[in-house]
Amino acid sequence: MLESWSNVVFGMECLGCGTASETLDPWLCPACRNALVGLSKNACCPRSDVVCLFPMEPLTRRLIHLLKYRGMPGMATYLVKYSCVMTGGNEETFTEYARPLYFVPVPLHRARFRERGYNQAEKIALALASLTGGQVCRWLRRKTFKVSQTRLSREGREQNVSDAFRSNLPKNLPSKGTVIIVDDVYTTGATTGACIDAFGNDFPLDVKVCTLLYDKPFSATMDYVADRRAFYTY
Ligand SMILES: [Zn+2]
Is the pTM of this model over 0.90? Predict the structure, then answer.
């Protein structure tokens, strides 16, 4: 296990399949990168106002685990870059949204931020903004500490986050454009829904949602269980 990790850290092995390769980019081997691009083309979105860049599959789950729990914030840019948003596989993505685009990351609680050192949603928002000509806006704050979402049932999650955020809007709020709430994973929509609610009923801009992954609600609990086990099995 230790030897396996030292190889990963020093770039010997593909982070997708774990095989040694001399043609890493430097995260994935060409086969895994092609698989990643293919997954993005098959991404499904649970609602018309939600864009999820990838489905939750073993490869994408492993990569987002690296982003969230293994201190690899650069994975956010990598995943956005190889999603259909940038590779043209889904021409509809963002093209119908009124400009400018304001990417608003779901805020991380301070305790989590201190532990992780960065907010993964903000890294994703930065990547989306830089590749679409939009901007990142910290227009949300988290109110109180909440236990990890992945441990709760759907009802529990909605109750848990329903009052978790407050808006942090500028006094001179733009009068046109689209706000895109950015998060890492969309499951039930409870978190991003609570973010939209925090803006209030009279919010003047269109609000959409964009996440890296879509995880079907019934599989999220299984993913959580799997995450708690050994990450690399090879
Ligand atoms: Zn690979």
Answer: no
In a domain, 26, yes or no: no
**CA 233–ligand 1 middle distance (angstroms):** 14
Residue 24 CA, ligand 1 centroid: distance in Å: 8
Provide the residue range defining the domain that includes 155: 44-228
Domain of 68: which CATH number? 3.40.50
Q: In this predicted model, what pLDDT tens digit does every residue of 127-177 receive, in sequence order?
A: 999 988 899 999 999 986 555 656 666 666 555 678 899 999 999 999 999
Residues 6+ apart with CB under 8 A from 26: 11
Q: How many domains does the chain have?
A: 1
Domain membership of residue 31 (yes or no) is: no
